[in-house]
Design brief:
With 83 residues, the protein is an alpha+beta fold. It has a single domain, classed as GIY-YIG endonuclease. The chain contains four helices and three strands; from the N terminus they run E-E-H-H-E-H-H. The protein has a three-stranded antiparallel sheet, with helices on both faces.
Length: 83
C-alpha cells in the first residue's frame, strides 16, 4: 500500500508526506531522518492518513493536501478522528 499522511509537529505545525510504510516513516521522522522540515520539530505525531493502491494516487493526494489551508487540514483531521 501507499499512504499519504499528516504529522503534527511539537511546535503545532503540520507536515504532509507519502510513504509505503507508515510506522517506519514516523519512526524516521522522530529519529531526525524523515525530512528536513521535521528534523527540528520532533517529536511528531501521526494525526491523519489515507491508503492508496498506487504511488501516483498517494502523491496526487499529498499535493492536494499541501495546497489546502491550515483550517481545511485541521477539519480533515477532525472529521476522520471522530469516526
Amino acid at each position: 500500500m501507499n499512504y499519504t499522511y499528516m504529522l503534527r509537529c511539537k511546535d503545532g505545525t503540520l507536515y504532509t508526506g507519502w510513504t509505503t510504510d507508515l510506522e517506519k516513516r514516523v519512526h524516521a521522522h522522530n529519529g531526525g531522518k524523515g525530512a528536513k522540515y521535521t528534523k527540528s520539530r520532533t517529536p511528531v505525531t501521526l494525526v491523519y492518513y489515507e491508503a492508496f493502491e498506487t504511488k501516483q494516487e498517494a502523491l496526487r493526494r499529498e499535493s492536494a493536501i499541501k495546497k489546502m489551508s491550515r483550517s481545511d487540514k485541521l477539519k480533515l483531521i477532525r472529521e476522520n478522528t471522530a469516526r
